[in-house]
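4.2 Preliminary Data

To establish feasibility before requesting continued support, the project team ran the inverse folding procedure on a target of 65 residues. The structure was first converted into the token representation described in Section 3, and no sequence information of any kind was made available to the design step. The complete token record follows.
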């Protein structure tokens, strides 16, 4: 499986991390901390990949911020 790119930016105006990805259609999420964002992405990415007909296997997708 190729590496996926997820863009995470800090939105200072509302004090949250916002993550999006061109590689994972439908991925848009936010979290108050980087750790919380990473946890959300570990759940959301496999679900969205499966919903888009691109299963990521039993190992899931490694997420590193």
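Position-by-position output of the design step:
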């Amino acid at each position: 499986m190729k590496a996926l790119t997820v863009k995470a930016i800090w939105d200072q105006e509302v004090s949250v991390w916002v993550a999006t990805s061109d590689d994972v259609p439908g991925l848009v999420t936010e979290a108050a901390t980087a750790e919380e964002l990473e946890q959300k992405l570990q759940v959301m990415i496999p679900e969205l990949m499966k919903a888009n007909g691109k299963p990521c296997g039993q190992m899931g997708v490694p997420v590193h911020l």
